[in-house]
Amino acid sequence: MITSIATDMDGTLLNGKMEVSEENRAALKKAQELGIEVIVATGRSFKEARFALEGTGIECPIIAVNGAEIRDAKGEIIQFTAIEDDLAYDLYRRLKDVGVYFEVYTNQATYTDNAEKAVELLVDIVLSAHPETNVEEIREQAKLRIEHGLVKLVNDYEEIIRDTSQHIYKFFVFSTDHKLLQRAANRLDGINGVAVSSSGNENLEITNDQAQKGITLEKYLADKGLSMKDALAVGDNYNDLSMLEKAGYSYAMGNADANIKKVARFETSRNEESGVAKAIEDALERTAVK
């Protein structure tokens, strides 16, 4: 019997319009009615995750920023894992030296120093999963990141990095120049205490090496007396690998990269086809929960 469900958001729970389909919504609500613990596990900040869930009626814990933070259904922080201050400054300087665009995620907000690039970053994430989607339609949706205060514009990141009241959760690097992105990746290679993953073709996500979805999910479930072997996890990209490797019932989306599909035990439909709902239905059948 599955006792928990952990779902990624972009490219997984959300469709190309960045919405939760009615089929996915109903499947998650049914699981909760059966007493199954439902968790959203995303690279987004908590605020951006809650924004995407608005109007769905889905109230559940959220593993945010790839595992750097977990909040309960009421939005209270249960735990967080930040990048150490000195290391955060070192990473900041390396990225500045490379000259690549990046955003900074902290316990207080998500920051950008370039509003246009902030929009393009989210467009890239969506297009990675939905290359057929109208770019301008996505761009209009992505502008809401700024308009709704989900991302704050600053002139200089250094004041954020040096602000001891803010814990640095993640550096989110974006570039359509793959050579520049590779240079950034090379500058980060081999740094102790750092995990580098991605959620799209043109980005890097840099966190504390303990701030990974699988690690945070396993700890959260253990505190609840639940086991990863009875967990269903579903995702589509490299920042989902740690939880797909650990979950007893791991599902790769039909739109997932081939390497993600190799790691997962099962494959479900694409996110445009409500693949999360189909994964839940399949897992319930396999474990004879009606």
Give a brief outline of the structure.
This protein has helices at 9-13, 22-33, 46-53, 85-98, 115-129, 135-142, 144-147, 158-161, 178-188, 213-223, 241-246, 258-263, 275-286, and strands at residues 4-7, 37-41, 62-64, 69-71, 77-80, 101-106, 110-112, 152-153, 168-174, 194-197, 203-208, 231-235, 249-252, 266-267. The chain is α/β, with parallel strands linked by helices and 290 residues long.
Give an overview in words:
The longest helix is centred in the middle third of the chain and has 15 residues, at about 115-130. It is built from 13 helices and 14 strands. The relative contact order is 0.18. The chain folds into 2 domains: about 5-80 and about 210-285, HAD superfamily/HAD-like (Rossmann fold); about 85-210, Hypothetical Protein, Haloacid Dehalogenase-like Hydrolase, Chain: A, domain 2 (2-Layer Sandwich), CATH 3.30.1240. The chain has helices spanning about 10-15, 20-35, 45-55, 85-100, 115-130, 135-140, 145, 160, 180-190, 215-225, 240-245, 260-265, 275-285, and strands spanning about 5, 35-40, 60-65, 70, 75-80, 100-105, 110, 150-155, 170-175, 195, 205-210, 230-235, 250, 265. The strands form 2 sheets. Strands 5-4-3-2-1-12-13-14 form an 8-stranded mixed β-sheet, sandwiched between helices. The chain has a 6-stranded mixed β-sheet with strand order 8-7-6-9-11-10, with helices on both faces. β3 (about 60-65) and β4 form a beta hairpin. It is globular. The model has no long low-confidence stretch (mean pLDDT about 95).
